[in-house]
């Protein structure tokens, strides 16, 4: 058994003139969560469709759970779960009936399908709503039911295509908790997302996709460090002292501080996190500059993404 | 987790057959459950035939002539049976396009599910639905004074031909359902309805303008209607075109041809859905 649940090498897929995938490479280790991050039209969904045997690649090859998606699709299908962008739930059936139906279609016997449905309803927090028709479920509950259906055969590899698109913040948090639970249960998870924050929340590996290929693939921390160190933000109380504060910050900054006069805010990248913070606070106090806020932060993934895609375009 | 892990050896043929039947029955039962739980669909199914028999049999029928003579309602009912079977393509198409739009078809395709099983289940549910529709319509016909006059054997043969037509149209419905959005699928009655009427369903082609009559006589639906009229012993003079004279051959031939063309087409479409 290899140590990667997903291996994609040079995958290509065209639709007419559009290259939806163009030399797509990716490796996802067993039992890990990988976020495929990119804007609309970057090729995320096509990548998932090829890896789940729904679409054939024009070039390259991919192994999922050790089997070739183009040549052994039946073997792949026995080891994966898919939750697409639309919750593929049956509104007229109850939550329990939905899961029993998918269980039977996974060739469990009636009693086993019933038992499995009960387990999953419990695990996905749907026990109370189990016997209500899905028509009356909230968006978050539908998604969780859909994830439960994808998880039915306890798949080696789970594919989640934008699992939180269209959800309100509370439902999104519910789904995040669920996805973490799936990963803890031992499945390898490949999820796509447009939300940088979401990738950071769930995945230890983020593959940034643009133009049908992976342009960066690393841990969230390393991706962020790619575009420089931490940032020190401070907000001064008196706008008149902004100039003095710039002088203080310049002493520890790696680059010219950026000032936002309206917000009385200064931002500058710093190398030595705690050292810089201590120095700045001490200097401000010595010069009698009052501050409302001082904080250290990592660059946001938005900053990472913009800088990576700009680099790729250049 | 180990208890649920996929078995390592590929399934044998007898196991695959068992799965096909099991998948088909799960899908058919789910579809029938849908139908039973949807009051609008049940109402639609029972009211539609009654409304149509009243409208065509009594309202319009009072001004209708049957070429060659005979009671119009006797003439009408085989036409309505066939039209109902033909419009059944809408049911198949609507369900398939909705399932495709909602990602249900993709989930089927990403699962170790039996593909013939999916289709068999769909076909079985649609046929059951159509049998019920036909029974209600037969009842309405009997109330309206229609009957069969050539014995139960011929009457059952006519019902068989009607269901054969419906069976053939399942493949057209699956093909179109996979190709069309749900919006487009639900608008499909617009071209479909005139096609079912541009036949011998409601009017004898002999009474139509010449070129229109020729189209009506060659309409695949006309073959089923004409043969049903013959088997039920209902009135309605045949034209003298080749199509009209070989109605029985065509009533079997057209559905077989439609199946032969659309079964592989829909299977191919299913396999290559979205590339």
UniProtKB/TrEMBL annotation, chain A:
<feature type="domain" description="ABC transporter">
    <location>
        <begin position="6"/>
        <end position="236"/>
    </location>
</feature>
<keyword id="KW-1003">Cell membrane</keyword>
<protein>
    <submittedName>
        <fullName>ATP-binding cassette domain-containing protein</fullName>
    </submittedName>
</protein>
<dbReference type="InterPro" id="IPR017871">
    <property type="entry name" value="ABC_transporter-like_CS"/>
</dbReference>
<dbReference type="InterPro" id="IPR050763">
    <property type="entry name" value="ABC_transporter_ATP-binding"/>
</dbReference>
<dbReference type="GO" id="GO:0043215">
    <property type="term" value="P:daunorubicin transport"/>
</dbReference>
<dbReference type="InterPro" id="IPR003439">
    <property type="entry name" value="ABC_transporter-like_ATP-bd"/>
</dbReference>
<dbReference type="GO" id="GO:0005886">
    <property type="term" value="C:plasma membrane"/>
</dbReference>
<dbReference type="InterPro" id="IPR003593">
    <property type="entry name" value="AAA+_ATPase"/>
</dbReference>
<keyword id="KW-1278">Translocase</keyword>
<comment type="similarity">
    <text>Belongs to the ABC transporter superfamily. Drug exporter-1 (DrugE1) (TC 3.A.1.105) family.</text>
</comment>
<dbReference type="Pfam" id="PF00005">
    <property type="entry name" value="ABC_tran"/>
</dbReference>
<keyword id="KW-0046">Antibiotic resistance</keyword>
<keyword id="KW-0547">Nucleotide-binding</keyword>
<keyword id="KW-0472">Membrane</keyword>
<keyword id="KW-0813">Transport</keyword>
<keyword id="KW-0067">ATP-binding</keyword>
<dbReference type="GO" id="GO:1900753">
    <property type="term" value="P:doxorubicin transport"/>
</dbReference>
<dbReference type="GO" id="GO:0016887">
    <property type="term" value="F:ATP hydrolysis activity"/>
</dbReference>
<dbReference type="InterPro" id="IPR027417">
    <property type="entry name" value="P-loop_NTPase"/>
</dbReference>
<dbReference type="GO" id="GO:0005524">
    <property type="term" value="F:ATP binding"/>
</dbReference>
<dbReference type="GO" id="GO:0046677">
    <property type="term" value="P:response to antibiotic"/>
</dbReference>
<dbReference type="InterPro" id="IPR005894">
    <property type="entry name" value="DrrA"/>
</dbReference>
């Amino acid at each position: 058994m290899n140590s990667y649940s997903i291996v994609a090498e040079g995958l290509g897929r065209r639709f007419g003139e559009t290259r939806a995938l163009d030399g797509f490479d990716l490796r996802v280790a067993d039992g890990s969560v990988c976020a495929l991050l990119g804007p609309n039209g970057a090729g995320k969904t096509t990548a998932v469709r090829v890896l789940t045997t729904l679409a054939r690649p024009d070039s390259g090859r991919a192994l999922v759970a050790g089997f070739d998606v183009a040549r052994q699709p039946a073997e792949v299908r026995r080891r994966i779960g898919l939750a697409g962008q639309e919750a593929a739930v049956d509104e007229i059936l109850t939550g329990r009936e939905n899961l029993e139906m998918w269980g039977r279609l996974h060739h469990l016997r009636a009693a086993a399908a019933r038992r499995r449905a009960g387990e999953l309803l419990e695990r996905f927090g749907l026990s109370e709503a189990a016997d209500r028709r899905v028509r009356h479920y909230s968006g978050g509950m539908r998604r969780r039911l859909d994830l439960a259906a994808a998880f039915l055969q306890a798949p080696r590899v789970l594919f989640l295509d934008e699992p939180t698109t269209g959800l309100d913040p509370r439902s999104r948090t519910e789904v995040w908790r669920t996805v973490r639970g799936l990963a803890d249960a031992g499945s390898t998870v490949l999820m796509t997302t447009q939300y940088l924050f979401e990738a950071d929340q769930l995945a230890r590996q983020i593959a940034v996709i643009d133009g049908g290929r992976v342009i960066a693939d690393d841990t969230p921390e390393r991706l962020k460090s790619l575009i420089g160190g931490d940032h020190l933000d401070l907000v001064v109380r008196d706008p008149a002292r902004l100039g003095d504060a710039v002088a203080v910050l310049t002493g520890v900054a790696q680059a010219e501080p950026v000032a936002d006069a309206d917000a009385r805010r200064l931002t500058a990248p710093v190398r030595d996190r705690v050292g810089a913070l201590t120095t700045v606070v001490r200097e401000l106090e010595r010069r009698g500059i009052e501050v409302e806020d001082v904080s250290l932060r990592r660059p946001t993934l938005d900053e990472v993404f913009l800088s990576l895609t700009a680099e790729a375009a250049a | 987790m180990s208890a649920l892990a996929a078995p390592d050896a590929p399934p044998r043929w007898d196991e695959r057959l068992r799965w096909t039947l099991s998948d088909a029955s799960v899908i058919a039962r789910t579809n029938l459950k849908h139908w039973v739980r949807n009051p609008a669909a049940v109402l639609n199914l029972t009211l539609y035939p009654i409304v149509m028999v009243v409208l065509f049999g009594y309202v319009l029928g009072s001004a209708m002539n049957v070429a060659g003579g005979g009671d119009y309602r006797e003439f009408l009912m085989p036409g309505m049976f066939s039209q109902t079977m033909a419009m059944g393509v809408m049911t198949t198409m609507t369900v398939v396009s909705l399932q495709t739009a909602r990602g249900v078809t993709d989930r089927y395709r990403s699962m170790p599910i039996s593909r013939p099983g999916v289709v068999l289940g769909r076909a079985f549910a649609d046929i059951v639905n159509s049998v019920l529709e036909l029974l209600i319509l037969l009842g309405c016909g009997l109330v309206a004074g229609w009957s069969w006059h050539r014995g139960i054997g011929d009457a059952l043969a006519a019902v068989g031909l009607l269901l054969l037509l419906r069976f053939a149209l399942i493949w057209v419905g699956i093909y179109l359902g996979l190709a069309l959005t749900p919006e487009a699928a639900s608008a499909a009655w617009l071209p479909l309805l005139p096609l079912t009427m541009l036949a011998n369903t409601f009017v004898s082609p002999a009474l139509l303008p010449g070129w229109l009559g020729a189209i009506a006589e060659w309409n695949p639906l006309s073959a089923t209607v004409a043969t049903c009229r013959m088997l039920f012993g209902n009135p309605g003079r045949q034209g003298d075109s080749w199509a009209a004279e070989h109605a029985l051959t065509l009533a079997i031939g057209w559905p077989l041809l439609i199946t032969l063309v659309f079964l592989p087409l829909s299977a191919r479409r299913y396999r290559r859905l979205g590339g």
